[in-house]
């Protein structure tokens, strides 16, 4: 794809004036307001974590789309570490079906959940594979039901978790249940870049206008942690074909416009006094710091965290006006399981550092 700088650039206002909002935007924002105000009353800071990649559909009845690289690893791990601090309530704005806090540990590809379980019968405690029955290799899965009249197919069977997985799963489940009972995690899904931008603006505005019981704003206690991989280009809705683009006419040319740089609007208008953290992904490490400094200069926010595609799980650089700080997991520690049974994750170090920086930001705003 080649960039075409001669096309006029969309401002953020023009973008929102022309691109339709996602359905249920208002309901989402109402729920966010309730979440933010309840957590402010409980004395929490609130962080918006964005995660995963956005799509650009090529058709309105979408068969094909362009996608941005991101599995949601950074965002989901970070959301979990923010929650673990006990100081933050997290709004998790993520790409639909990408990794999520807690359940991410049992992704179908890295830790297939069903492989950790076995069926045990109470009578003999033997692990018993289901026998082929009535000509079927295995019976159909019964629908989940709340009715007590539906009997389980085998009432004496229990599901057991294989011993090495039991302790970590129990501990994770307890953390997850605690998070649910405290009501400190609120998730919202997006798919397209349009949905992402509408939700980003809406949630940021709600965070900056929410008030606690005493009428105080979230202000500096809000953080915006923008780890999503957002498309730089989009196709304005008027130019998106209604139906599937037909082949047979040879090659396909797609003309895309540049997505407005909303970070400026976010810092100046939407996020009030919040602490804004953006991410910069490059494949060429030489570009990382100059690009991050350029972003700080242009948008005026607090910190850019730079990472490269190849090493993003092991090293990042915090770029601030005062200088750069690399955060790394040493080579010998990579992939190692610690005393607590968990693999060392760079997000733990990122969040620890950010929490301290955020405290400094809050303190510096006090008169
Ligand atoms: O989700 P993931 O862990 O696979 O990737 C995370 C990331 C590289 C998308 C994120 O750290 C990042 O840099 N986000 C911003 C990307 C950008 O420059 O637009």
From TrEMBL:
Family indicated by similarity: Belongs to the PPC synthetase family.
Xref: InterPro entries: CoaB-like_sf, DNA/pantothenate-metab_flavo_C
Record-given protein name: DNA/pantothenate metabolism flavo protein
GO BP field: coenzyme A biosynthetic process
Domain of life: Eukaryota
Molecular function GO terms recorded: catalytic activity
DNA/pantothenate metabolism flavoprotein C-terminal domain: residues covered: 223-313
């Amino acid at each position: 794809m080649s960039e075409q700088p001669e096309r006029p650039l969309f401002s953020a206002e023009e973008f929102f004036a022309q691109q339709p909002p996602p359905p249920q935007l208002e309901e989402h924002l109402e729920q966010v307001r309730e979440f933010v105000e309840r957590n402010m009353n409980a004395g929490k800071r609130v962080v918006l974590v964005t995660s995963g990649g956005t799509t650009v559909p090529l058709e309105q009845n979408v068969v094909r789309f362009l996608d941005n690289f991101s599995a949601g690893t950074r965002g989901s791990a970070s959301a979990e570490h923010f929650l673990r601090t006990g100081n933050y309530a997290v709004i998790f704005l993520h790409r639909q079906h990408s990794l999520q806090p807690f359940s991410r540990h049992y992704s179908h590809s890295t830790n297939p959940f069903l492989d950790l379980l076995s069926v045990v019968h109470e009578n003999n405690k033997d692990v018993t594979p289901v026998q082929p029955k009535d000509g079927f290799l295995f019976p159909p899965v019964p629908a989940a039901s709340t009715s007590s009249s539906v009997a389980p197919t085998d009432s004496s069977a229990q599901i057991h978790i294989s011993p090495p997985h039991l302790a970590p799963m129990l501990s994770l489940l307890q953390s997850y249940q605690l998070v649910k009972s405290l009501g400190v995690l609120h998730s919202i899904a997006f798919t397209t870049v349009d949905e992402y931008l509408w939700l980003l603006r809406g949630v940021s505005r709600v965070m900056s206008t929410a008030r606690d019981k005493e009428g105080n704003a979230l202000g500096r206690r809000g953080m915006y942690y923008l780890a999503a991989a957002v498309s730089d280009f989009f196709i304005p809705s008027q130019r998106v074909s209604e139906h599937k683009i037909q082949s047979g006419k040879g090659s396909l040319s797609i003309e895309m416009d540049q997505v407005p740089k909303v970070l400026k609007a976010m810092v100046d208008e939407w996020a009030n006094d919040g602490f804004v953290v953006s991410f910069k992904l490059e494949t060429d490490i030489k570009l990382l710091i100059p690009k991050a400094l350029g972003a700080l200069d242009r948008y005026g926010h607090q910190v850019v965290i730079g990472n490269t595609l190849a090493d993003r799980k092991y090293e990042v650089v915090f770029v601030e006006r005062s200088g750069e700080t690399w955060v790394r997991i040493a080579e010998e520690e990579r992939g190692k399981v610690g005393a607590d049974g968990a693999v060392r994750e760079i997000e733990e170090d990122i969040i620890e550092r950010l929490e301290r920086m955020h405290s400094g930001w809050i303190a510096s705003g006090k008169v």
